[in-house]
Prior knowledge:
Elements: E1 22-26, E2 44-45, H1 54-68, E3 70-74, H2 81-94, E4 99-102, H3 108-121, H4 128-139, E5 143-148, H5 161-166, E6 174-179, E7 183-186, E8 201-206, H6 213-220, E9 226-228, H7 235-239, E10 244-250, H8 254-262, E11 266-268, E12 275-277
Parallel strand pairs: 1-2, 1-3, 3-4, 8-9
Antiparallel strand pairs: 5-6, 5-10, 6-7, 8-10, 11-12
Helix pairs in contact: 1-2, 3-4
Amino acid sequence: MxxxxxxxxxxxxxxxxxxxxTVIAVTSADMALPAQDERTMPAVVLRDLxxxxxxxxxxxxxxxxxxxxxxxxxxxxxxxxxxMRRLYTLRSLLESDRIAFFRPELPPLGIxxxxxxxxxxxxxxxxxxxxxxxxxxxxxxxxxxxxxxSVARLDRVPVGLKAHAKSWxxxxxxxxVAHPEPQLVRLTPGVTLKGxxxxxxxxxxxxxxxxxxxxxxxxxxxxxxxxxxPLPAESPRWWGTGRMVEFCSYLADLSVLYQLVTSVxxxxxxWCGIDVIGDRCVFCSATPPVHxxxxxxxLEQRTPA
Length: 305
């Protein structure tokens, strides 16, 4: 597999050379979206972690760290707890500081989009720590929401008593943005949601709900275009209902993503020494040490003459 040249962008990699020190992994196949461009690296799918024998999954994860060096597992807050327990067990058994778990407060479709953005950046000359910590930065540019047939079981966004009551009315639908700022409105003619102030694409995943409202939202948000993908299996658990259409607005251009990440100041983790952006190392979870201000010097007591 070749590494394509990238004028004006990533440096230090010669044409035809492949250098991928970090692999992006997901916990189910539906979270591995199709490649955005020819540079997008494939995702590693850690399938059925809680159902396969421990030794099999241990061998698999060890092989990944040996092959790539660093592994970043991107998963949602709706990922089943048995899967998360297995991941932590595997990392503990391997005693590895080269495995990171990134679990931001994004709905599942947003998680899948973020994982693909990191897969795009994995083809660039970013160090493992910078690539892993770039996820926190990129979440700020993702607008994720859904159209729901009921908000009775929605606990990810504040839901008022009136909205709860209206959710029991047959035919009611609600438009919700969970990230970056919670929004919830009942769908009525002309209603819309506050969207991004920059150019994006929109991805849509349809569940057990029929609505064309999201297409109008894409126009209102001035999206370049609208693409469809199957609904992630974790989405009904996250949103509290299967009667839904999930949507996500995101940056798709690799040059824009690269510029965002490389424009942020990098520093070295004081604990493990890896280069990072932000205030927390994704691999060892260390935060910068807090330096206590020096105590004020006591006033010298002067003896009266």
